[in-house]
Amino acid sequence: MLTLLEQIDKGTLWRAIGGIHPPEQKVLSNTTNIASLPMADEYVIPLPQVGDNATLAVSVGDYVTKGEVLTSGSHFGYLPVHAPTSGHIIHIEQRPSNHASGLPVLSCVIKPDGLDTLSDKVHPKLALTDIEHLSNQEILSKIQQAGIAGLGGAAFPSHIKLNPASDIELLIINAIECEPYITSDDMIMREQSDAIMQGIAIVHRLLKPKRLIIAIEDNKPQAISIMQQALSRSVLPEDGVRITTLPTLYPSGGEKQLIQILTGQEVPSGAIPAQLGILVQNVATCYAIQDAVLRNYPLIERVVTITGNNVAKPGNYWLPIGTPISHLLSQTNFKGLDTDKVIIGGPMMGYALYNDSAPTLKGTNCILLPDANEMAPEQKELPCIRCGECAVVCPAQLLPQQLFWHSKAQEYDKAVSYNLNDCIECGCCSYICPSNIPLVEYYRIAKSAVKNEIEEKKQAELAKQRFELRTQRLEDEKLAREAKQKEAADRRKANMSGTDKDAVAQAMARIKAKKEAEANSEVASSAPTDKRDAVAAAVARAKAKKAAQTSPEKLEASTTQDPVDDKKAKVAAAVVRAKAKKAALKTADATLPENDSEATESIPDAPVAQIDDKKAKIAAAVARAKAKKAAHKAVDTSAIEPQSDTETSKPVPDTPVAEVDDKKAKIAAAVAKAKAKKAALKAADATEVQNHAATSEPATDAPIAEVDDKKAKIAAAVAKAKANKLAKQAKLDNGKD
Amino acid sequence: MAFKIASSPHLSRNFQTSTLMQRVILCTLPGVATQCYFFGWGVLIQVALAITVALISEAIVLQLRKRPVADTLKDNSALLTALLLGIAIPPLAPWWLTVMGVLFAIVIVKHLYGGLGHNIFNPAMAGYVMLLISFPVQMTSWVAPMMLASQPADLLGSLQLIFLNPSASEVEAYKLGFDGIAMATPLDTIKTDLSMGLTSIESLTKSIFNDGFGVGWFWVNMAYLAGGLAMLKLNLIRWHIPVGVLASLFICASVGYLLNPDTHVGPLLHLFSGATMLAAFFIATDPVTAATSVRGRLLFGALIGVLVYVIRTYGGYPDAFAFAILLANLCAPFIDHYIKPRTYGHRSRS
């Protein structure tokens, strides 16, 4: 069993999977030498990296020399672009891109001065020996500064590719050029074989691979022999370096397919060849690398095949990168109509360009200008007959008809399960399909839909995360707010005084009192019924407390329970009682003392309610006075001896005290007295005693409601007591009568 | 200047379904001609009748389905179906048998399932099986080879027999050999003889067998084999299904013959009798109803071969290709689901 490297040395080829043999049509363009075209009126150099990895190094109006760099950047992936000729920058603006979409891209437009003055950084070509002292990093830097990208079509930056993370065992120089029509690599190999070998030697030096294969398809015999000779002349070691000829088969030039044919290995799905220790480099890129490293000459021109039956002068041309397609169409006598195609690349994988003002790019290897009969005629898509030819030709060993079935039904998940993403879009299946089904187009649509789906999923996931974070944040904020509020409340509670607490209790009591007042309207008539009266609140409180303690009925009946802390008031009351007794003894009727005692007993009601001692005294005095008068009147009405007058004068010393203390009380008392008198006079009329007693009460109630003064209330209470007394007296009188 | 845009690839082999079908039809011609040579004008009459009915019925169905009529008829698929059914029906079978079979194949089996590319069963074989089950007497009345027949049918006689509702005795006359014994197909003969206690060697001594092969049938099979090889050469079909069918039939027959030569017929007789070559190259390879992957096709073909052998040897029918193919059609989606090629870069095996 030979090792892989031994088999490579023997030139073993492995079986290619799938593939087709489309008409090659290479003879159209490979019979003439590489030519040049007259200079264009303007060159359009797209600056796709500006705004991303690069910044503009020039501005409109600047003069640039050929090879002068137009951008600057320091990013790892930065790839400079250079002026393809000397001239002035006339625009930096959006121009149609050389892309299937034709979307505009920021481009630098240079008007050539026709002198083609070369940048002074470009120097005469050195020999390979002159760069031996350079480090790999220096060489890679030169390659990067020259803006070298893969010229096979994908235009991947070479300085990244040539700096792989792992060791490279096998370096493959891809000179397959399997697409029909294209001959640019063929021609550059024929004309620049030694320079290419120098480029290969530089790459070989960078990577130090164990083996190097220059792979050429057998439809390029001239190139093969020329390269063979150049190889023998080159500095490349004889061992481990070989030119391998492959049978012509499309798409054996695909990187993955080439590796499979040359090594029998497969690049794992989603991986790069470097993981197998293999690196594939396009042959024309090696020429550009040599130019960059040995001459400091940037990548500003390349060989482009211009071919097809719609062009009078098919062939290969050295074209400055940035040449407008329209210019080269006119220079090669393009005879097509707008119903014809302008294909960038080959007929299998190239894209049809819509707008010919787009420029050539670093990856533009061919411009195919077929006439109406050259390409496949437009034919109606027929039903798939499951012939399976597509699966036979598929180099990726996919099942194209299953992919088609699911792609068409938009069952993209199923299409992915059939490895949709391993499709290299080589076009073999579409080429072979007897039902004219544009399979690759279906796959492209499906792929982009899958890509979008993934993108949308990603976006949805982000949105979900955002939403969750927001919900979390709101929740956190709410909790924080609540904690803050709780803390503040605690602080307030801690700072709160006893009075504040009382206030709450008072408010509670007020509410209770109101309820009770309503329930016992008869008794509570002495209490303030005006709810809106805020000033009376304090009084009400005190009353309410009491009311809560003792039922109103008891209040009237048991005066002894009431906490009368005033001695004077008691004394006064005792005095009054004593006087009353005396007066009663004097009176003939035995019922009077009862009456008096009732009257005096009722007196404490008011002071008890008022608490204040002074007022109590006043009230007592007033009561006494009233009692006297009432007794006096009673005497008068009952026609008793005038001794009562002397008796009434006895309490006089008390009265001045009351007068001095409070004028208002006196006034109130006077008013009450007056009223009492009137009531008494009316009572004299024996027929309507009950009525009067009833009316006298409302009379005393009214001032209470109006006058919010405590004293006024006291007076009122006193008046009430008097009125009671009068009423009883009147009753007695009536009884007597 | 603005140009036309289109998706790649811009090249096409430009080899259409209609061309494919047309070439397949051309490749059947040697077999059809041989069949005519041995079995008379009836073969051609049935084929012509089948094609006419197929084209008319397909046109009507397409009209009903609101599909382009002319374009679809041009794909030649109905033509091929009718041809295959026409050559499978006994040459002197009554006209209504062919008409019913073709109508069933085109209208029900093909178009009611969605038309070309969507049918599950091979239309020709489904039509054939329908006839075989419904009209076993007519479908098994195969005529004697011309050179062995006591009364070979000429063109006029064939037309009369097919279209004029002949009496049973008239038909019977064409089935008699020159020895006056009613002849069946070679496979039928062996089956009957084996059931009557004869050994296969004894059976092969009968006049219908000539040097170990059925008279006429050997050459018919050879002609279809030649047509099949031409199809392979022209890349009209891939080799996997025919090889699968023939190899598995050969292997099964060899094993059976080696185990018990008296009650089993040899592998070569299996390969060159009945519809073997026609079915292996022209019917089993119908892409619509077959498996699609390379390994799947080998399995699909092998399955047909095994089923044919089993039914021929142990079943009630002398030939079994129609049943075997329909059964394999049923398995095709299943095979496709489980047998997928390993995609490039996906390491399912090391």
UniProtKB/TrEMBL annotation, chain A:
Pfam families: Complex1_51K, Fer4_7, RnfC_N, SLBB. Residues 478-567, 630-659, 682-704 are annotated as: Disordered. Residues 478-503 have a biased composition (Basic and acidic residues). Residues 450-477 form a coiled coil. [4Fe-4S] cluster 1 binds at residues 384, 387, 390, 433. It is an enzyme of class 7 (translocase). InterPro entries: 4Fe4S_Fe-S-bd, 4Fe4S_Fe_S_CS, Ion_transpt_RnfC/RsxC, Nuo51_FMN-bd, Nuo51_FMN-bd_sf, RnfC_N, Soluble_ligand-bd. Gene3D superfamilies: 3.30.70.3270, NADH-ubiquinone oxidoreductase 51kDa subunit (3.40.50.11540). It is a peripheral membrane protein. Residues 549-561, 688-698 have a biased composition (Polar residues). Binds 2 [4Fe-4S] clusters per subunit. [4Fe-4S] cluster 2 binds at residues 394, 423, 426, 429. Residues 375-404, 414-443 form the 4Fe-4S ferredoxin-type domain. HAMAP family: RsxC_RnfC (MF_00461). Belongs to the 4Fe4S bacterial-type ferredoxin family. RnfC subfamily. Part of a membrane-bound complex that couples electron transfer with translocation of ions across the membrane. PANTHER family: ION-TRANSLOCATING OXIDOREDUCTASE COMPLEX SUBUNIT C. This is Ion-translocating oxidoreductase complex subunit C.
UniProtKB/TrEMBL annotation, chain B:
Keywords: Cell inner membrane, Cell membrane, Electron transport, Flavoprotein, FMN, Membrane, Phosphoprotein, Translocase, Transmembrane, Transmembrane helix, Transport. The chain crosses the membrane at residues 38-61, 95-113, 125-144, 213-232, 239-259, 265-284, 296-314, 320-339. The keyword Ribonucleoprotein does not apply. The modification FMN phosphoryl threonine is found at residue 185. Pfam families: NQR2_RnfD_RnfE. Its EC number is 7.-.-.-. Its cofactor is FMN. It is found in: Cell inner membrane. It is a multi-pass membrane protein. PANTHER family: ELECTRON TRANSPORT COMPLEX PROTEIN RNFD, ION-TRANSLOCATING OXIDOREDUCTASE COMPLEX SUBUNIT D. Belongs to the NqrB/RnfD family. The complex is composed of six subunits: RnfA, RnfB, RnfC, RnfD, RnfE and RnfG. NCBIfam families: PRK00816.1, rnfD. Part of a membrane-bound complex that couples electron transfer with translocation of ions across the membrane. This is Ion-translocating oxidoreductase complex subunit D. It comes from Shewanella nanhaiensis.
